[in-house]
Amino acid sequence: MSEAQLDAEEVEAIQAAMRESAPRRTSTPAQAEPTRLALIADDRIAEIARPALINLATRAARFASKTLRPNLPGTWQLDIIGAEILDGTLAKEELRGGWIAGLSGADGAELAISAHGGIIDVAAAKRMGAQAPTADPDRPPSQVALRLFEPTGKMIADAWIQSWLDSLGSKLAPSADVGIVSRIIEARTVVRVALAFSGSLTGRAAVYCRPDVLAPRPAALAAFKANAEKIANALANVPVEIIVELGTLRMKLKELRSLEPGAQFTLRGFVDSRVPVYCEGVLKAWARPVVCRGVLAVQIESIVHGQGTRS
Q1: What integer is the mean pLDDT of 7-34?
Q2: What's the pLDDT score for residue 1?
Q3: How far apart are CA 218 and CA 255, in angstroms?
Q4: Sequence-separated (6 or more) residues with CB below 8 Å from residue 44
Q5: CATH number of the domain to which 67 belongs
Q6: What are 32-67's pLDDT values in tens digits?
Q7: Residue 7: is its pLDDT beyond 90?
Q8: Does any domain span residue 8?
Q9: Both 56 and 101 in a single domain?
Q10: Under a CB-based contact definition with an 8 Å cutoff, are residues 68 and 152 in contact?
Q11: Do 82 and 168 meet the contact criterion of CB atoms below 8 Å apart?
Q12: Same structural domain for residues 177 and 115?
C-alpha cells in the first residue's frame, strides 16, 4: 500500500462517498400512537364495553334509517360519531333538555336513550300535518314537541331492541321506570355512543349504559392477610431518604435576587423547637436539634404512626 498522502480532491471524494452511504436520519422522530392503559377495574371493563356498544349502534342505525323515513322526511343519513367513557355527572348534563326513554332487560340490562336537536321539531311538525317541516336548531324543544316526538323516539328505541336481540340474543323492552336514568347518571363510569343526523336534518341521538351491562365484571380475587413480619424483613434493606426540616421561610423574588454573602434570615421557631422528620416525603417523627460530639444531630421525641402528611 502506498504511503503517499492523499490530496484534497481525493479526501473530498472519500468524504462524499461516506456521506452518500451513511443511513439517512429523519428530521422528526416517528410519532407513536399512544395506547391507553386502563389501570382501574371499572376502566378496563369500560374499554371492553365501548367497542361492543359501537357494534350495537351500527346495527341500530341501520334499522332506524329504514323505519324513521315516514316520520322524518327529506334526504338525510344517520351516522355513528363514536363511543366514549364518561362519568355520570357529564351524562346528566348531556341528557338535559331532550327526549329521554329507558330500556330494560330480564338480565338486569338498562339503557337510556336520548334525542336532541332539530329532529324533535321536524317529527312533531310532520305529525301535525306539515308538508315541509323545518326546525330551529338553536331553540330547545317545547314540552308539546317532546310529546309529539314520542312515536319517533319509540322507533329509535325499537331499533335498539332489535339490535340487542340480534347481537346478544336477549330481549329489551321499553320501561317507564325513571330509576333507570337515575342509576346510570349515579354510576362512576358510563359508556355512551353518539349518533348524528346529517343532510336535510340536524340532531343527534345517544345511548348510555353502565359498562358491566356489556362486559361482565370479573370475579373478585381471594384476599389473603399478609404477614407483617415477613414484609418488614423483606423491606428492611431498602434505602430511604430522611430529611430533617430545621425551618422554612418565604421571600419575594426581588429579595432573592438581592442576596449577598453574609445575609441572614430568621427562621420560624426557636433553637430548641421541635422539627419534623420526613421519610421519603412522609412525616414520620418529631425531633429536637442537638449537638453530639461537635456535630449537628437530632433527638427523636415522638413517632408519627400511619401515613402522616407529605411535605
Answers
A1: 56
A2: 44
A3: 59
A4: 38
A5: 3.40.1550.10
A6: 545 444 446 667 888 889 999 999 999 999 999 999
A7: no
A8: no
A9: yes
A10: yes
A11: no
A12: yes
> Is the entire prediction scored with pTM above 0.90?
no
- What is the domain extent for residue 78? 41-214
Q: Percent of the chain at pLDDT above 90?
A: 41
Task: For the chain, give the mean pLDDT.
Answer: 83
- The verdict on residue 31 lying in a domain is no
201 and 67 share a domain?
A: yes
Residue 40's pLDDT is what? 60
Q: Are 53 and 191 in the same domain? A: yes
d(CA 124, CA 72): 9
Instruction: Based on the fold, state whether residues 68 and 152 are members of the same structural domain.
Output: yes
In sequence order, the β-bridge partners of residue 75 are: none
CA 29, distance to chain mean position in Å, is: 27
Residue 298: which CATH number?
2.30.330.10
What pLDDT was estimated at residue 217? 72
Of 198, 214, 230, the last residue of a domain is: 214
Residue 201 exposed, middle or buried by CB count within 10 Å (0-12, 13-18, 19+) = buried
To which residue does cell 451513511 refer? 22
Number of domains in the chain: 2
| Residue that is written with C-alpha cell 414484609 in the block | 231
Q: Quick check: is 3 in a domain?
A: no
Alpha helices in the chain (DSSP H): 8-21, 41-67, 88-95, 118-127, 143-148, 150-168, 179-185, 211-214, 228-234, 253-257
Same domain? 192 vs 243: no
Instruction: Looking at the structure, tell me whether residues 245 and 105 fall in a common domain.
Output: no
- How far is residue 284 from each of residues 229, 235, 249, 275, measured CA to CA in Å? 20, 17, 22, 11
Establish if 230 belongs to a structural domain: no
Domain shared by 279 and 166, yes or no? no
The three cell numbers locating residue 125: 311538525
- Per-residue pLDDT at 77: 93
Nearest to 279 by CA among 287, 271, 270: 287
Q: What percent of the chain has pLDDT over 70?
A: 82
How confident is the model at residue 19, as a pLDDT? Answer: 60
Model confidence pLDDT, tens digit, residues 181-226: 999 988 888 999 999 999 988 899 999 999 988 887 777 667 777 7
- CA 171, 174, 177 angle in degrees (round to 5)? 120
